[in-house]
Design brief:
Structural class: mainly alpha
Distance between the termini: 59 Å
Shape: elongated
Largest sheet: 3 strands, antiparallel
Length: about 120
Amino acid sequence: MCALAFLYKMVLWQPLGRIASTRCKRPKRVPTVLSQSKVCRVLTALDEHPTLGLLGQLLYGAGLRVGEGRALRVMDIDFDRRQMLVRGGKGDKDRAVPLPAACDERLREHLGRLREQHER
């Protein structure tokens, strides 16, 4: 359909008109959901690297997408309200998500290490 529309509009310079046809439907995909034991194994494997382990916990605990987790900034984390601001998520919308309690201490330690590195 797109090729026909392009041909008539850009090459032949004629209106295409109405075409009686049916479009193919994309099949719905069921998302892959890991079991609790598999999630534990993945998070344990990520713990070998402190930063990746923390990111994995944030993704799982707050329900973030990978791109949203990578784009988190220090200013987006509010420890007082125990929430994070996700900017430009799906549909380019911002949303607030709860900060997982399991990540609170590790996140503070990580930010402290980054602050020391920045000051050096």
